[in-house]
Request: fold
Amino acid sequence: MTKSNEHDGREKDAALVMFELLNEVGIIAQLSRTLMESRLDDGLTIHHFTALNHLVRLGDGKTPMDLARAFQVPKTSMSHTLAGLEKRGLIRMEPNPDDGRGKLVRLTDSGETVRNRAIQDIAPDMADIIPQFGLEDAQAALPFLRKLRVVLDKARDK
Amino acid sequence: MTKSNEHDGREKDAALVMFELLNEVGIIAQLSRTLMESRLDDGLTIHHFTALNHLVRLGDGKTPMDLARAFQVPKTSMSHTLAGLEKRGLIRMEPNPDDGRGKLVRLTDSGETVRNRAIQDIAPDMADIIPQFGLEDAQAALPFLRKLRVVLDKARDK
DNA sequence: AGCATATAGTACGAAATCGAACTAAACAAG
DNA sequence: CTTGTTTAGTTCGATTTCGTACTATATGCT
Reply:
């Protein structure tokens, strides 16, 4: 039926490859999520950890909307996550001096400590995974994934 | 402090690489999730689609637990997803002849049709993404991701 | 066989997710 | 300055997610 312009068995449609790729990515995300979550548990969820991690790595003083956009979640969900972090004393909310509607998210010392401890707790698991296929493969995959993330991000608003 | 056995700036710890990698994967999964969801909507969620897709690709006659394990979700969540699919007439639940406790999930014709249509609806978006970094890169990434998924899956039960 | 333990699935309730509606402030145009 | 539009964030409610507890069957051990 379909025209076979090269080797039929190996002929792979671009959409097909992408489907498979995102399928794998979805499963990996789910697996890593549950793996990390099993290591966390001071009642901390992945969302809590991810937000803390983001603030440590890229600097605090972000607005809630910045974070919502960064993680592609609705602002109401981010509100909820931040409320949880604040209740635990891991962040503080300040009024945004540049925008009377807005707030700024500030890491507390405790927040940074908790994040660092979480990293320490999870790191052994991460390190254990690498040797199973070599650091080089993983390093090679990173730029590709970054690019894919950027492309998908742009495709977001059609 | 850390010994610099090569080029210090590029020296990357295995755990660090893995963190970054899974971070990217998580964001990509989230983006692709919302992208797909925007194309679906006959009330179908990603979970519905993913389950249908799995059954078409790998064959039906799986138990709910098979599916729960495949997607790494609690069995109660899978119950809920399957209930939704059954209510829509996209699957049927049979008793498992080999296990009196269990059930088998069967695709209906309608289920297969709906899955195929969903694929058709999403395919253009998938195809649009590929040219932005070349089919070869994507094909190269696939085996790596599969391996990572398998490794994580094994690490699951410590 | 009989009993202990493990497993498949469901019921139920608590928490999380997220859309809709709302408040308040910013911004844009006249 | 007023008016209309946009944006940040919260509140509220419907739906989803998922842990706990339960039932029923299977499996393993003696």
Notes: Chain A touches chain B through 60 residues (CB under 8 Å).
